[in-house]
Amino acid sequence: MSRFTHRAFLPLTLPLLLLACGQNPTASQEDLGPYANGASYPWSYTQAPGTVTPLTLDPGRNNLYYEPILSAKNGWGPIEVNTSNGEQNKGDGRKLSVGGKSYDVGYGVHADSELRWSLKSSLAGVTCSKLDGYVGVDDEVGDRGSVTFQIFLDGAKVFDSGLMTGKDGAKFYSVDTTGKTDLRLVVTNGGDNNYYDHANWIQPTVHCQQDPTAPTTTPGSPDFTFGDNGRVPAGGMDSVFTPDGSIVVLGAQFNLTRLNANGKVTARSGPLGIDFSPSTARTLAVQPDGKLLAAGGSSIVRYNADLTLDTTFADGGHLDTRTLNATAPVLVNNVRVSPNGRILLVGQADRPRRDSLGGTSSAFAVLRLNTSGSPDGTFGQNGEAYVQYEDVHDTEQFRFIPDAAQDILVQPDGRLVVAGATDLGGGDFFPVAFRLTPTGQLDPTFGSTNNGFVTPQDLHRNYGLALAALPDGQIVLVAGSTRSIGVDPTIVRLSASGIVTGTKTFRFPFTDTYVNNLSEVAVQKDGKILIGGFYATQVYSSGTQFGAVARLNPDLTFDMTFGSGGAVALDVPGQSPTVRSLLIQADGRIVGTLATSDEQAAQTIRLNP
């Protein structure tokens, strides 16, 4: 499969520089001694430690534009992608052009310059034998500039273009990369100075092939380049990507483990000195600044990016939700961070009944906090919004039902879609979705009927557990089951306005499946849907339960290219694991966590895309 169209480039971090380099000088400027009157704007970039991953080089042609750079430096301003070097600011170049011919793909650099890659595929059995492309001085400097292009493999120079100027057309190169792992593309100043040395690496392409004697990787198979044969003994409750590309995994005791992108443990949180009893950690979120929020029960904790306790948050780093509600504590089931950095919590809390008997019943609870941990006074009542199904269904049937929110999704316009469950009595609960306005009011326009609630009531003994947005704005709602025999979970697809557009009664496609349950959903860039949970071959018997991941097409049919019949079973010997979280890396590989009753046995896994 070609890398020319379907992989998004991992962007460089480019600083904003200040003065022009004079790419179109006047006659008087040419007479100046030092280039641009002595100005200098060198630039460099290095991939953050622990985040470098091998390239995902497929059999066929792979353009290096789509692969992560290890390091780079440039003589004048930032290296540009698909445009010429331009001047000293990011994005100020033009379309790549050499010898009067323009090109769509490549790098615009300025001597002295270097780009470096780890030339090793992460796909088993794939070897790369050739690198080719074109080089030349960009037309934006006219006939000026004098550079030399050089290619180094594992430290040895394998190509030298000789001196090239703006008068020359593009030059083709082709080098043998067999067995090589370190690639550097270098531009020197041609032996004089760096005046107008705007150089282009055009369509740098690596040619690879599948070794017919090597085992192939199939979608959903274990990625043996991750951890120890695809697994790391860490966490299990939830996981997130942090801004530097690391993976942080949450354990049930509010402990965190940081992994680099290839599964190596790089840090663990230490003792926090907080009594979490009776709370158990359930959910993890990351803020834009890299700080981490772990929540569960009545506890919310914030960590610094280095996994130490952030004492600037709430009460010395710990927020006890029992201090937020005078009636009863808010029990947190999920934490999310909105695009503007505010903290969203969903769960349940007891609220006064509206009937003559008095007392309380459980309500859907949605809280919004400022980044400091204080309530956001612009949301609901002092940062708290409570919704009860009985509020809009004032009949005897619905007056005593418990409500619990499980997940929340922020739509592009700031409205909040909430998933949860409500109980008709006797454990006969069903999934519910509703929407709040950005200020925390129930939005009655969500769904076509039912006063703002979407309640597929034929889905008895299911509860709304997880939400995800499809690329077209539709919503996937995962409704888990109660582990009851013959009661399967359901996947519901909704329009952005809450209209049901599809449903699927779900069973993992294994012949020995006896009980199914779901707990997580994630959506790939191509719209395919990943579902995580477990299945069991018997009920309540140790060793007969398996974690499982399935992949569905956007129409909710199984993706038959994934695993066996669209799903993968994941075993932890002597345990009854369930998949609690799913992440999708930039190259499409799937990171999941397997929770077990024995936290020491919990695992983080990675599957091939």
Distinctive features:
six-stranded antiparallel β-sheet, 609 residues, mainly beta, disordered N terminus, 42 strands, Jelly Rolls, 2 helices
Please describe what this structure looks like.
There is one protein chain. The protein has 2 helices and 42 strands. It is mainly β. The longest helix is centred in the N-terminal third of the chain and has 4 residues, at 27-30. The chain has 3 domains: 27-210, Jelly Rolls (Sandwich); 217-278 and 508-609, no CATH class; 324-506, no CATH class. Helices cover 1% and strands 41% of the residues. A hairpin with a 7-residue loop joins strand 41 and strand 42 (603-607). The strands form 10 sheets. It has a 6-stranded antiparallel sheet, with no helix packed on it.
Show the helix and strand layout.
Blueprint (H helix, E strand, L loop, with lengths): L26 H4 L12 E4 L13 E4 L7 E4 L5 E2 L14 E3 L2 E3 L2 E5 L2 E6 L7 E12 L8 E8 L2 E10 L5 E6 L5 E7 L9 E13 L20 E2 L5 E4 L5 E4 L5 E4 L5 E4 L14 E4 L5 E5 L2 E5 L14 E3 L10 E7 L5 E10 L7 E10 L14 E4 L1 H4 L10 E8 L5 E8 L5 E8 L16 E2 L7 E8 L5 E7 L8 E5 L5 E6 L9 E9 L5 E8 L8 E8 L14 E4 L7 E7 L5 E6 L7 E5 L2
Antiparallel strand pairs: 1-3, 2-14, 3-8, 4-7, 5-6, 7-14, 8-13, 9-12, 9-14, 10-11, 10-13, 15-42, 16-17, 17-18, 18-19, 20-21, 21-22, 22-23, 24-25, 25-26, 26-27, 28-29, 29-30, 30-31, 32-33, 33-34, 34-35, 36-37, 37-38, 38-39, 40-41, 41-42
